[in-house]
Design a protein that fits this description.
With about 1000 residues, the chain is an alpha+beta fold. The strands form nine sheets. An eight-stranded mixed β-sheet has the order 11-12-14-21-18-17-16-19, with no helix packed on it. α13 links the parallel β11 and β12. The longest helix is centred in the N-terminal third of the chain and has 28 residues. It is flat, with a radius of gyration of 35 Å. The N terminus is likely disordered. Bound molecules: pyridoxal-5'-phosphate. The site of pyridoxal-5'-phosphate has 15 residues, from α19.
């Protein structure tokens, strides 16, 4: 740095009057030099223009900045410092004796968006709004276009036509097509009003302050060096082009940006339609320009590398360019086509006068719901079975029934409905038609006169079967379309494209499952306002995240069925409403996960589905041990509920059967079972057993432990009793350190750490003795979970148990988190520690969601306990609970879920270790099987907990459709603990998304570090 400061000594004299005397840190820039420096008050950017540069260029920028800042003082623009003579710039001779124009700006917060990476929609909406404000602020600014800018002026971008020779093959064709599009829109573009434009809001001219616990924000719009005069839509298209580079959801990102602009400076539909062709043209100019440079500088790899993102966007086949105009119009709340409002008004005015589509009045038809919230079809939301498709409504008679428009459904399970590589990727769920269920063979009539636009037989299972698209006209001759799906394929013989069909005429029949795609017979009746961008291959269901577009393109067709909209419109569960009701009815310390709470209505194995049918990978919940909605659990529960349910006062084989299954898994001495209905109740009972057996009362337990929410369980849970508003430690509770060998007192570099941690028990025992107490026993989560997914060092529990037993105490293993195969190599956690507890406590996973817990102990302890009063728990040991719990144990064995936990755990942990190698924020990766933790740190040296990073990652993963939790005294440890059914592709998804989140969080952490 000093060396560079020396080289630029020629700057120091001119900067001194501004209070800049210290070192100049050089920033990027080749011909123009840029430095970061400080004055007494500010960080500043010193800019020294290229040698012999024109002062006019700087003057122009300073004038534009002054103009825009005066018009809108809130804009985050650089502020130019004035020199003592009042001028914003000075001419200086550099060390080569050449003249350079020097000027100084206050530096703004944040980092370049290009460095921060693709931004989320809310940030892009803010960027859109700021771009709109900047355009407004520059409206009255008189600017002469500088000649250098011509290359980047979208009004003069046609120059690339003569340089397509620098591209080869497909790329040349691609750019030629973009150019042809540009030529097509050019007359419309040239006719728009022009104004002064920044013209280069690329991702390095936009500053952003990334956020971990607060949303990221745009903090600067900089570099006015490429200003030009043109239609504002050109400037917006340029900003948009760079903002969506390498974005995972470029269409949504673009829509957010444009809607943000429109909200501040309303766009007209004609402008909106120009954005996509202009955006592509800007990138085309950029790639052609680079290709030309590459010819001049064949050895400079940077030229090619820098263009890769632009090519990736231009060549991205997943983007549906034909629909972007409609998408952006819909995002802005503008009519999706020019005649949309007139067509809808005409349909509404004629509601009631159309010929009945099935020849009968639909007024009294029953409406059936296939919505996520109502229907339990399909059993497996990833695989609709043929028999399920044939009985969607479960109807037992031939009456006509209606299925709703806008209804999120889980029945669309084919891979074609999925939008990404993983099972939890977005999928299309929202029905865009009205269904009319009626017997196969029922005649389909034309509601009005029209012409056949398409007739086909789509033979694939769960496709449309026979399908017709009709073209209709309003009274004023405006064209719209309707699709009739699931018809008898015979329609292909009787109709052809161009045939006229009179109003009321029968033109098709409802297909039977053999010919209609395999569905219960029904008509899928869908409306579309245009074929532009849709052609004849209409999607029948939409991604809920794209609903704004699709509900505009394919509105509710109720009018054509002579029905009021509401009768066939679905209003899905409203998460905001649910939240408000919850707040009204429940205590505020009943916490919800995530900043954006999530509603789940269905589950299957290790996935959950929200109210819109969006799938989420559940990498957090350990209660659905053998997977959500396991059919075997449902079957035994239904079966037992159909029989009887009672308690342990009567004999029942299910109770003894469960006891036998559990004890068969445990060391021989653990032979007596008690059944309860929660982990808390189980721990309460364990305390009573220990006290009865030992005659003592005092308990030794590790810090930060959690054993439940009842009074006694809280008393032994430091994680709770040490929180503000709690009573603190009871005198009969004695804490030892949690045996955390990453961050704790004794670490992995200490070979004696297990013994040292265990040795703390001696102090606790001494404390009991000094206080006149008597030891009842020791309780610990075998692997402390809320303490931070800790795996105690090998030998720890053996040392602890030896000391406790020597003092007459009972050793209790809380295996609520660790038991039943989760650890892969071990069925119970204590096996890993090579100990035999006196009492084992089980809960959560035992009932797979049904409330059941168990306490298993030795005969001697149980006998001491039996000397007291009768033991009875109303729900503990219910026949229903026992059958479910036994089924869980069987499923773990039958499906080799313990083996899966081992295999998937290894995959997950090795992937996490690999992430740890690449992301500085990862301090420690730990776990066994599917009990894992990722300890996040601000830096690896101090191991200080990166709580904000963990908060960011869990919330961001939720948005990316993955559930994980966080734990530890500082809430900085990601807790990944999925149902045991998780598969390799799910683990890979988790690792991939975690990689993204850690990258984003690392960038934000670096940007916000002082
Ligand atoms: C280790 C441990 N023990 C006991 C409990 C309490 O179980 P429950 O919530 O079923 O009462 C929990 C709950 O999280 C736990 O993690």
């Amino acid at each position: 740095m000093d060396g560079q400061a020396m080289r630029h000594d020629w700057l120091l004299d001119v900067l001194k009057p501004l209070g800049i005397g210290g070192p100049l840190r050089q920033l990027g820039g080749e011909h123009d030099l840029n430095f970061r420096a400080v004055t007494a008050e500010d960080d500043v950017i010193v800019k020294a223009m290229r040698q012999r540069g024109e002062p006019a260029l700087v003057e122009r920028q300073c004038a534009a900045l002054a103009h825009a800042s005066a018009a809108d003082p809130g804009l985050p623009l650089p502020q130019v410092l004035a020199f003592p003579d009042g001028l914003p710039w000075q001419a200086v001779r550099d060390d080569e004796g050449q003249s350079r124009i020097v000027w100084v700006q206050r530096s703004l917060d944040g980092i370049a968006m290009g460095e921060a990476g693709p931004q989320q929609p809310a940030v892009l909406a803010e960027l859109g709004a700021l771009a709109a404000r900047l355009d407004r602020a520059l409206e009255g600014f008189a600017l002469q276009t500088a000649t250098e800018a011509a290359k980047w002026d979208l009004l003069r971008a046609g120059w690339i036509r003569d340089r397509l020779d620098v591209l080869d093959g497909e790329r040349r064709q691609l750019v030629a097509a973009i150019l042809a599009d540009y030529d097509r829109i050019f007359p419309r573009l040239a006719a728009l009003p022009a104004q002064a434009l920044h013209n280069d809001l690329n991702d390095y001219n936009i500053l952003v302050v990334p956020g971990l616990t607060v949303p990221a924000r745009i903090s600067g719009l900089i570099d006015f060096g490429d200003m030009t005069v043109g239609p504002r839509i050109c400037g917006l298209a340029i900003a948009a082009a760079y903002a969506i580079l390498d974005h995972e959801t470029p269409e949504a990102a673009l829509a957010a940006l444009i809607a943000g602009y429109h909200a501040v400076a309303p766009l007209v539909p004609e402008e909106v339609d120009l954005i996509w062709p202009l955006l592509r043209m800007r990138l085309a100019v950029s790639v052609v320009n680079s290709a030309i440079e590459a010819v001049d500088r064949p050895d400079d790899p940077y030229v090619t590398i820098s263009q890769a993102p632009a090519w990736r966007l231009l060549e991205n086949k997943a983007i549906d360019g034909a629909l972007i105009g409609a998408r952006l119009r819909a995002a802005c709340g503008l009519p999706v086509t020019d005649n949309a409002e007139r067509i809808l008004a005409w349909l509404d005015a004629n509601r009631g006068d159309f010929a009945p589509v099935l020849g009968v009045d639909l007024d009294d038809a029953e409406v059936v719901s296939l919505a996520v919230e109502d229907s339990i079809l399909p059993e497996n939301p990833f695989d609709l079975r043929a028999d399920e498709a044939r009985r969607l409504t479960g109807a037992v008679d031939d009456r006509i029934r209606l299925g709703r428009y806008g209804e999120p459904r889980l029945v669309y399970t084919d891979r074609a409905f999925r939008k990404g590589p993983w099972k939890a990727s977005n999928r299309r769920t929202v029905h865009m038609a009205v269904d009319i269920f009626a017997p196969a063979g029922q005649a389909v009539h034309a509601p009005l006169a029209g012409k056949v636009a398409m007739v086909e037989y789509r033979a694939n299972p769960l496709d449309y079967g026979g399908v017709v698209i009709m073209e209709y006209r309003t009274g004023a001759g405006e064209v719209f379309y309707a699709l009739y799906g699931h018809l008898d394929p015979a329609v292909c013989d009787s109709l052809k494209v161009g045939d006229e069909v009179a109003a009321g005429a029968v033109f098709a029949k409802l297909g039977a499952p053999q010919g209609n795609g395999g569905w219960e017979p029904h008509l899928h009746f869908q409306l579309a306002l245009t074929l532009d961008g849709m052609g004849h291959d209409w999607p029948g269901v939409a991604d809920p995240d794209d609903w704004v577009l699709w509900r505009a393109l394919c509105p509710n067709p109720a009018a054509l069925l002579n029905l009021p909209e509401e009768r066939v419109a679905c209003t899905p569960v409203d998460t905001a409403e649910l939240l408000a009701e919850r707040i009204a009815r429940f205590g505020s310390n009943l916490k919800l996960s995530y900043r954006r709470p999530v509603t789940f209505l269905r589950g299957w194995r290790h996935h959950l589905f929200d109210e819109m049918g969006r799938p989420y990978l559940d990498a957090y919940n350990n209660v659905p041990h053998v997977g959500h909605a396991h059919p075997r659990i449902r079957a035994v529960a239904c079966d037992q509920l159909a029989r009887m349910n009672s308690n342990t006062r009567y004999l029942h084989p299910a109770q003894t059967a469960l006891a036998e299954r559990l004890t068969a898994r445990l060391p021989q001495e653990l032979e007596i079972c008690f059944f309860v209905n929660s982990g808390s109740e189980a721990n309460e009972l364990a305390l009573r057993l220990a006290r009865a057996a030992s005659g003592g009362y005092d308990i030794v337990t590790p810090d930060h432990g959690y054993h439940g929410n009842t009074t006694g369980a809280i008393d032994i849970s430091a994680y709770k009793f040490n929180k503000p508003g709690m009573h603190g430690r009871r005198p009969w509770v004695h804490l030892v350190d949690v045996a955390d060998d990453y961050r704790g007192r004794f670490r992995r570099d200490d070979p004696d750490r297990a013994r040292r941690y265990a040795g703390q028990v001696d102090a606790a025992l001494a404390e009991i003795e000094q206080g006149g107490g008597r030891l009842a026993g020791f309780i610990a989560e075998t692997f402390p979970s809320v303490g931070g997914q800790i795996i105690p060092p090998q030998g720890y529990l053996a040392e602890v148990y030896r000391r406790i037993r020597a003092a007459g105490g009972i050793c209790i293993a809380d295996e609520v988190q660790t038991g039943l195969g989760r650890l892969g190599d071990f069925y119970f956690g204590f096996e890993q520690q090579k100990v035999r507890p006196d009492i084992v406590v089980l809960g959560k996973p035992l009932g797979n969601g049904h409330p059941v817990g168990a306490v298993i102990t030795t005969r001697a302890i149980a006998e001491r306990f039996a000397e007291g009063p009768e033991y009875f728990s109303t729900f503990g040991g219910s026949n229903l609970s026992c059958r479910i719990a036994a089924e869980v144990l069987d499923i773990v064995d039958d499906e080799d879920l313990q083996g899966n936990a081992r295999r998937m755990g290894e995959r997950l942990l090795s992937g996490m270790r690999e992430l740890g190698g690449r992301h500085e924020v990862v301090g420690d990766v730990r776990g066994i099987g599917l009990f894992t933790g990722l300890d996040l740190v601000t830096d690896r040296e101090s191991r200080n907990p990166a709580t904000d990073v963990a908060d960011y990652v869990t919330n961001r993963l939720r948005d990316l459709r993955i559930l994980v939790g966080r734990e530890g005294p500082a809430d900085n440890i990601l807790k990944i603990r999925p149902p045991l059914t998780i598969g390799a592709d799910d683990v890979d998804m988790l690792l991939d998304r975690l990689d993204l989140c850690l990258k984003e969080a690392g960038t934000a952490l670096r940007a916000t570090k002082p």
